[in-house]
Every structure is written in structure tokens, then in C-alpha cells.
Amino acid sequence: MKNLNKLFAVIVVVAMLATLAVPAFAAVPSDVDGTEYETAVGRLVALGILTGRPDGTFAPDETITRAEFAAVVVRMLGYDSAAAAAKGQTKFSDVSADYWASGYVNLASSLGIINGRPDGTFGATDPVRYEEAITMIVRALQYEPKAKTLGGYPTGYLAIASQEGIDDGVAGTAGMYAPRGLVAQLVDNSLEVDMMDQTGYGTDTTFEVVEGMTLLNDFLKLDKYEGVIESVDTDDYEL
After folding, report:
1. How confident is the model at residue 56 (pLDDT cuts 50, 70, 90)?
2. Alpha-carbon torsion 125, 160, 189, 37, what sign?
3. Would you say 44 and 187 are in contact if contact means Cβ atoms under 8 Å apart?
């Protein structure tokens, strides 16, 4: 059954890529094949949100830096091209204009998704902690106003993650560094969460959850398609 499920997943991904002009299909990195991270990493690599290492591995147990996470969040919002245009001088003393992630840092900072340090640095190479990853994802989904009413950082953001299923199946704990595999699970879960949007302004500012408005549909512009597979040769697959 596991092999048949993997075959079905491959068929779905290939069909999605063929019809929706998603970045070219890349095989699931060998070091996540058969692990709890396989589904999430496979989809995010196919969408170009996460990338593997030059040697073809994903390194799911390695930490992810603040600069790398800024890039992940910008890509999941569909702003990769905008980040390229934003590359250059930053307001942070430790992120130079020619730093590989300067555009991602500039854009993530301007969107209010990730902040700098009180001393004016960004901490680009610092590893991201679990609660920091959750906070940035919650901000990307535009739930920050609600998170603030629930206690702010980090409890309010962690509460939103639990309520909206962002942390479903994720073995994360506040205070721990967030490994790449765990980040993949969090980001993958977030793609289909109904987002919050501002519906009032000025003295009547209000925010509401918009059913059906998701990162996958409205930012990455990938609508769900349902189809029927009429036949599959299962001779080589165990049931």
C-alpha cells in the first residue's frame, strides 16, 4: 500500500506540474525518501519553495538560518521575483548589498514578517528557533492581529499554529532550533490554511478569516484540480 500511495503522489505531482507551469519537477532527495518529511519536502521542492543541497540531499536534521528562512517565506508567498528586484542595500549592518539573501531579507523585513535585532543587526546566519519559525509563518498568513490578542510572542503565535493546524504532525518545542525537515512540515501545512485579511480600515479596522483564500490558491496561484485515474498498472506495487 505504501508503494501504491507513493505512485499516486508522483502521478498527482506530475499532473500538477504539467498543467500549472510549476517549476521543473525534481526528485525527492534521497535522505528524506521514506521518512516523515517525504511528502512535505517533495511538494515544496517541486514548488521551488525549498531546495536541496548541491549533493542531492536535503539534510532534514540540519538547522536553517534566519536568512534561509526569510527566503523560504518569501517564496511561499510567491514573491521570488520581487526579492530579486529588492536585492541590494539593506538596513541591517550585518547584511551587505551583495549578500545572496539581501533581496529576501529586504522584502521579508518590509512585509513585517521578520525583524532585526535591537543592535541593528539581522542575524542572518543565526539558526531559527521553533517559535520564531511559527511566528514568521503566522505573520505570512496575516494572523498577527489575532496572535497579539492571544498573548503576543510567542504564546499567541503558537496558539494560532495549533488552532489552524500549522503544527499538525510536527514534533516541535519552543526553545529548540528548527531543523530543515520540521520547517518543511510547517510550511507545507501552512499552504492550505485559510488566511486572514483586513476588512476594515481606520477606526473600523477589522480582520477576518477568508474561507478558500490560501497561499496555494491566491499567492502561488495554484488551484486544486480533481481528476480520476482510470487505470494504474499495479503489477510492480504491493497492495
Report:
1. confident
2. positive
3. yes
Q: Cβ–Cβ contacts within 10 Å for residue 218, how many? A: 16
Residue pointed to by grid coordinates 547584511: 95
CA distances from 189 to 99, 109, 162 (A): 30, 23, 11
Q: How far apart are CA 117 and CA 28, in angstroms?
A: 36
Contact of 29 with 52, CB cutoff 8 Å: yes
Distance from C-alpha of 11 to C-alpha of 82, rounded to nearest angstrom: 31
Q: How many Cβ atoms from other residues are within 10 Å of residue 211's Cβ? A: 8
Could you give the CA distance from residue 160 to residue 149 in angstroms, rounded to a whole number?
11
User: Cell 542572518 appears where?
Assistant: 124
Q: Read off the C-alpha cell for 196.
A: 486572514
Q: Is the pTM of this model over 0.70?
A: yes
pLDDT category at 229 given cuts 50, 70, 90 is: very low
Cα–Cα distance, 71 to 65 (Å, whole number) = 10
Closest of 134, 201, 139, 123 to residue 165, by C-alpha: 134
Q: Closest Cα partner for 139 from 120, 160, 168, 165?
A: 160
